[in-house]
């Protein structure tokens, strides 16, 4: 909610964040996120990406908006932070390793990332089958 346009680098598809839990960092953007930012409304004189209703101000409370989004989507128990877990789980299920997922999430410790990357049972079964098939073929 405190992201300003000055931190957005669409040419490099990154957010250059000067202050986070672990200090300054670069957050890499996927093309769909970069496209959304490129097309987002900008208000002259307002530096905030997520602007408020008052001139020059940012949105200060995301909960009313988030409650409307959840109601429309029919997912009343989903927290905003759950989106981060979903991102990590989707990355893990698509074959990304924990170090890469950690880099995407801005983690410095793989143990922190492991808490986010909950794998669905089916991708784990598929991986087990693939390894077992390879072993069977190797052992004859």
UniProtKB/TrEMBL annotation:
Transmembrane segments: none annotated. It holds the Pfam family Phage_integrase. GO terms for molecular function: DNA binding. Keywords: DNA integration, DNA recombination. One of its GO terms (biological process) is DNA integration. PANTHER family: PHAGE INTEGRASE-RELATED (PTHR30349), PROPHAGE INTEGRASE INTD-RELATED (PTHR30349:SF64). This is Tyrosine recombinase XerD.
């Amino acid at each position: 909610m405190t992201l300003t346009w000055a931190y957005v680098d669409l040419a490099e598809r990154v957010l250059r964040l000067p202050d986070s839990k672990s200090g300054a960092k670069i957050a890499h953007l996927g093309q769909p996120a970069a496209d959304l930012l490129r097309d987002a409304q900008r208000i002259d004189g307002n530096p905030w990406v997520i602007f408020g209703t008052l001139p020059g101000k940012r949105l200060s409370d995301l909960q009313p908006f988030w409650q409307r989004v959840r109601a429309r989507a029919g997912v009343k128990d989903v927290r905003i932070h759950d989106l981060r877990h979903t991102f990590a789980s989707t990355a893990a299920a698509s074959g990304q390793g924990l170090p890469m997922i950690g880099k995407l999430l801005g983690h410095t410790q793989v143990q922190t990332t492991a808490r986010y990357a909950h794998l669905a049972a089916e991708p784990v079964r598929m991986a087990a089958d693939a390894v077992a098939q390879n072993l069977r073929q190797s052992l004859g």
